[in-house]
Amino acid sequence: MKERNTKPSASARLFAATAAVLASCAASGAYAFTLEGAPKVAFIYASSAQDGGWNEALEAGRKAVEEQLKVPVAVTENIPEEATKLRAAIDLYVKRGFNIIIGTTYGYSAPMAEAAKAYPNVAFLSASGTENGPNMESFYARTYQGWYLAGIAAGQATKTKKIGILAGFPVGVVNWDINSFALGARSVDPAIETVAVFANSWWDPVKEGQIAQAILDQKADVLATNLSATSALDAAEKAGVPSVGFQLDMSHAAPKTIQTSVVFRWEKYLVPTIKEIIDGSWKPEEFGAFEGLETGVVELAPFGPTVSEETKAKIEAAKQDIIAGKLDPFQGLLKKQDGTVVVDAGGKVDDAALWSMDYFVDGVIGTMPAK
Amino acid sequence: MLDTAFLVRRQNPGFLLTSLSYAGGLLVGLTVSAMLLVHAGVPASALVDEFLIATFLTSDGLSQTATAALPLVLVGLASAVAMRVRFWNIGVEGQLWLGAIASTWVALNGIGPEALRLPTMFVLAALAGAAWIAISLFLKLRWGVNEVISTLLLGSVAFLLVQHLLFGVWRDPANSFPVTATFPEASWFSILGWGQLHTGIFLVAGIALSIWFVMEHSRAGFYADAVGFNAKAALATGLPVLRTAVGLVLLSGALSGVAGMMIVAGTEHRLNQSVGNGYLFSAIVIAYLARAKPLWVIVVSFALGAVFTAGNVLKVFYSISEAMIVLMQGTVLMSILMAQFFSTYSLKRPN
Amino acid sequence: MDFLIGWIAIIPSYATPLLLASLGLIICEKAGVLNLGAEGLMAVGAMTGAVTVLSGADPWFGLAAGSAAAMALALLFGISTVALRANHTLAGLAVVAIGLGITGVVGRPYVQKTFPGIPNLGDLFGIDRSSAFGRILAVQDPVTLALPILVGALWWWISKSRHGLRLRSVGENPAAADVAGIDVQLVQFGAVLASGLLCGLAGAYLSVATSHVWVEGMVASRGWIAVALVIFSRWNAARALWGALLFGSADALVPRLQAIGADVPVYLMMTLPYVLTLVVLVAGSMSGRRSGEPAFLGRVYLRQDKQ
């Protein structure tokens, strides 16, 4: 969390309090760390590395690390998000001299933090994690920036003024994608509404296809999926509806109708960070690494054949504004679905509030489960 | 099919024959599994070096196995006591989730004095598990609703209840991930200083021994074996058989509930969506292979814990996938099942 | 109205795989063999169907291949339970593990690759979608359309035909069936293979007809729902149809309520299919109907045991 608002929210204070404890051993905000022994890197996945989505995007980063840094990189798949099983895997790796461990799901975060305390000379990187420390850094990308651009593409494409997005679970990192997508579309036309449905799974292509149909039945004429399976895009292609994919370039699933995909380029974070760890210049961020369009950790895949030049130009302009800091998807005036004001004009949602985002913004039609 | 020969159930198979067929089945299953592993690229020599030695002959391996075995013993016992009264508890995971919910509630809200935090969690987890199975029990006794379906369906309901809480009141407020806050340390079983093994082992040992006593040395065990879960026959005998059966079924739910507590208080220290997964399969397999005998449940649970430890080694160093490990478990189970045939039946030619 | 039409139109895609699997299990269990392996059989069907189509075969052939592969696994189940008299519950669980495991191992290179599925009626016959009926009919596929016929035929076959009588007698009283000259093991083997065929078709339907892609674990507990549906339907094919529709409609409702922004507790709503099933079961029992469970279900028959 590199930039923070002057008036921290409750959760920002929570973050800060945790950080204060953790940072007590460090000098000036960031931690210092030195690696012992020859660098050996290990990636631990919660499911198959070849999942065609989230893991595969990280897998591309892993391959880049192996090729560019010429260090040994091991892979373990299917370690469930349970403390005992993850810890056993980490112990085995550390015993064999592996000293840079990358965990790939938020469910690993807390057990990894415990392991990081037990092994102070091992570096831990936690994808979409929540814990940080002297030898541990969580990393995620400002995916909402990419989704804002995708929202512009959707806003340009829609005729019914209704677009849809299918997502997994109502967690902060997903909610901000939905909201930003809706806001991007509204930047084209404030009348556009966004239908959002949670599948309540990360991985059920049957259900995702069926939910895609439910969204299309609401007269949405652009369909985005925040999940990995291709079945929703396949449904959109069949219906001749423009679509947006996520995590990897999904154009293979809907070659005719896809607009673009919001993709991760983890090598842009992993290669320099692991290089720093090896060089001894690594200083884990207090609040984790959280990069966006400016470093290219998040970007848009090549546009599909139906995207107009006008749309491309609009997206490019917005992208440059975001990189330059002139535009923030969550800038005021921002209202929730029920009309309450989140941020007044001139302000913007700070990072802590982003992570705890548990609402839809104005213009989204959908149900926050369990609220 | 077997017109020229009769299949006859052996009256008294004898220890040797039983052990031989068991071992034979195990051996065939393990051999097929080893062939699968070698085919998947694990060098045959490594099977011994890494797999057997890392699992059984290293301190780390053993402590991992012991830690993993604790909840397994509990769910194995849960399945076993229900099996003894012919009640098919297919809802072990559901009762486990309820136990986990109850203990999480106690831990997060600091119910009761700190010194009594763990006992409070224990009691409420047991009650919650028992209450969840009590629904199926009631439906069966009152309306004859098949317990296979009711425990199975209520298992799914319990998981959705967990999700409702994890995405609702218990979500991590800082990032809205479906993980509760870490429990205060008063709600943790203390670490014994050997890997992740914790004081929960004493609780599990006490429970297992009590159940062994109840099942093998008390009338309850006798009634259970004599009549099983048949309400009509039970009433006809005039013995408190029905009461025994009801008690054992509730005990089954309570044990599953305590397994949930063992997981969240022993190793996880928080509740998330995946801590209870996979225990149903383990519970039934353990209870069956142990023939519902409490002491054997302990042995088989440790064996299964060792399989998990070994599986972890394979995953980490040979990139063997979970699917391969599941396939191996299925293969071993199937071959043991098939091998039982040879000790249970004999072929007789008609005179 | 639009909401209703969309909802009704999608229900069959939820119900079809559940129903196909339940029908297979009903045949199997009518012969006295308790089959808890549906999840594994469906996984094999789903993976094989997808791999077959990805290798360039016609989607229809993919459905057939999925059924055939699941029959092979059912054969193993039959050898263990029928020939070697293994415990049905455990053998069923072993089938689940083997099915889920082998599909993960074999199917690994085929994950997340889209392929053409079977066409729907709209594609095949150019059905006019202007009426509500047309809109609902156009999105159905031939498998779904054939299902009511299959249900009717199975119901008649099991409860009225001579072969059905033999099947039922094996599940109710194998000793009597044996005396009457019925080959008990042969009937049970046939029934087990039939369950493989239909569960495999159900699995292949998920990959080939519904989602046009295969991923590990895509059966996602639908096999277990099918097991529950069998008990729900009291081992009656016709009632399984209603059960599958009830379950499917409850399941299809939740995302549709979200899509219109209805203010409902989503996870609690998702318990609806399970709770409804229990309620209907209780109501059925209260009205004093028999459970329909075959008397010899899950038990081992030996000729020496006959009285």
UniProtKB/TrEMBL annotation, chain A:
Q: List UniProt keywords, sorted A-Z.
A: Signal
What InterPro entries does UniProt report for this protein, alphabetically? ABC-Purine-Binding, Peripla_BP_I, PnrA-like
PROSITE patterns listed in its UniProt record: PROKAR_LIPOPROTEIN
Q: GO CC annotation: what is one? A: plasma membrane
The answer to whether the entry has keyword Transport is no
Spell out the CDD domains in the cross-references. PBP1_BMP-like (cd19963)
Which residue windows are coiled coil? Answer: none
The signal peptide annotation in the UniProt record is: 1-32
Q: Identify the Pfam families for this entry.
A: Bmp (PF02608)
Is Transmembrane there in the keyword field? Answer: no
PANTHER family, per the entry: ABC TRANSPORTER SUBSTRATE-BINDING PROTEIN
State the protein's name: BMP family ABC transporter substrate-binding protein
UniProt organism field: Mesorhizobium zhangyense
UniProtKB/TrEMBL annotation, chain B:
Keywords in alphabetical order, please: Cell membrane, Membrane, Transmembrane, Transmembrane helix
Give yes or no: UniProt keyword Heme.
no
Q: Which InterPro entries match?
A: ABC_transp_permease
- Protein's UniProt keywords contain Transcription regulation: no
The protein's topology relative to the membrane is: Multi-pass membrane protein
Compartments in which it is found = Cell membrane
- CC terms in the record's Gene Ontology section: plasma membrane
Gene Ontology MF annotations: transmembrane transporter activity
Membrane-crossing ranges are: 20-42, 62-83, 95-112, 118-139, 151-171, 191-214, 245-265, 271-290, 295-318, 324-347
Superkingdom of origin: Bacteria
Q: PANTHER family in the record, alphabetically? A: ABC TRANSPORTER, PERMEASE PROTEIN, GUANOSINE ABC TRANSPORTER PERMEASE PROTEIN NUPP
What is the recorded name of this protein?
ABC transporter permease
Question: What species is given as this protein's source?
Answer: Mesorhizobium zhangyense
User: Lineage from the top down?
Assistant: Bacteria, Pseudomonadati, Pseudomonadota, Alphaproteobacteria, Hyphomicrobiales
UniProtKB/TrEMBL annotation, chain C:
Transmembrane portions of the chain: 6-26, 33-54, 60-83, 90-111, 131-158, 186-207, 264-283
Q: Which domain of life is it from?
A: Bacteria
Q: Where in the cell is it found?
A: Cell membrane
* GO CC annotations on file: plasma membrane
**UniProt keyword terms in alphabetical order:** Cell membrane, Membrane, Transmembrane, Transmembrane helix
Its record classes its membrane topology as: Multi-pass membrane protein
Q: Which CDD domains match?
A: TM_PBP1_transp_TpRbsC_like (cd06580)
GO MF terms listed in the record are: transmembrane transporter activity
Stored Pfam families: BPD_transp_2
State what protein this is by name. Answer: ABC transporter permease
